[in-house]
Design brief:
By secondary structure, the chain is an alpha+beta fold. About 30% of the residues lie in helices and about 45% in strands. The chain folds into two domains: about 100 residues, no CATH class; about 90 residues, Jelly Rolls (Sandwich). The strands form two sheets. Strands 1, 2, 3, 4, 5, 7, 10 and 12 form an eight-stranded mixed beta sheet that branches. A four-stranded antiparallel beta sheet has the order 6-11-8-9, with no helix packed on it. Pfam families: DUF7263 (PF23924).
Length: about 220
């Protein structure tokens, strides 16, 4: 055999070895993946149930589906989640919102299951507006959570007898309204709150309500063994 023939034969043999090695590696990887799938179905189920609960419309910490109330979400505990989602009981878990861990129990292993959800996060913001009744008789709220606090202060020469929200009477006293009232208002947004009064004397109304400041966030759920 010539030197060129020997070189070709050696190259062919090396190629066969490489192909065999790749095939063996591929089989090992496939076997590992199948083994992980066999080991993790319960963790995957638990993680999916937990992620679904965290964005559910009827959860106590949400305003609607995929909309989280920030103040309630950050106060969740592992006990709360285990009570609401039985499949996570006894498992390591963590919940993070925008990179900040808000619930953590146990230590997640490399085989832990991760689920990410894009959510809207709403934060409560308290607002107050003062209305001078000699200049105007209404205030408009761009956003609110369904309840307002009205404080009425007038002189004897002016009597506020009716308060309306979106045209609906929410307070009325023909003898006169005075002091502090907590009022449930329609869900309309923006919402106009109006004041009907008699007389031309001075008077003020302070309207306080809770608005929301919203942002888009990433919720990450991790559940392990």
């Amino acid at each position: 055999m010539t030197a060129r023939g020997q070189a070709t034969l050696l190259g062919f043999a090396a190629a066969v070895v490489v192909v065999a090695a790749v095939t063996v590696t591929g089989v090992v990887v496939a076997d590992d993946a199948l083994a992980d799938a066999d080991r993790q179905p319960r963790a995957t189920h638990a993680a999916d149930r937990l992620a679904t609960h965290l964005v559910a419309a009827d959860a106590a910490h949400t305003r609607e589906r995929n909309v989280l109330r920030a103040d309630r979400t950050v106060n969740l505990t592992a006990a709360d989640l285990a009570s609401a989602v039985p499949p996570v009981r006894g498992r390591s878990l963590s919940v993070a919102l925008d990179g900040d861990t808000i619930v953590e129990r146990g230590v997640a292993t490399d085989s832990a299951v991760h689920i990410e959800r894009r959510v809207r996060v709403e934060r409560a913001v308290d607002r107050t507006r003062r209305v001078d009744l000699t200049a105007r008789n209404a205030v408009t709220l761009a956003d609110h959570t369904g309840r307002v606090v009205v404080r009425i202060d007038t002189e004897r020469t002016r009597t506020v007898h009716t308060v309306r929200a979106d045209g609906r009477v929410v307070l009325h006293d023909p003898s006169g309204l005075s002091g502090r009232y907590v009022v449930a208002v329609p869900e309309t947004r923006p919402l106009t709150v109006g004041f009907e009064s008699d007389g031309d004397g001075p008077g003020t109304v302070r309207v306080s309500w809770t608005a929301t400041n919203a942002s888009v966030g990433e919720l990450v759920v991790t559940v392990g063994e």
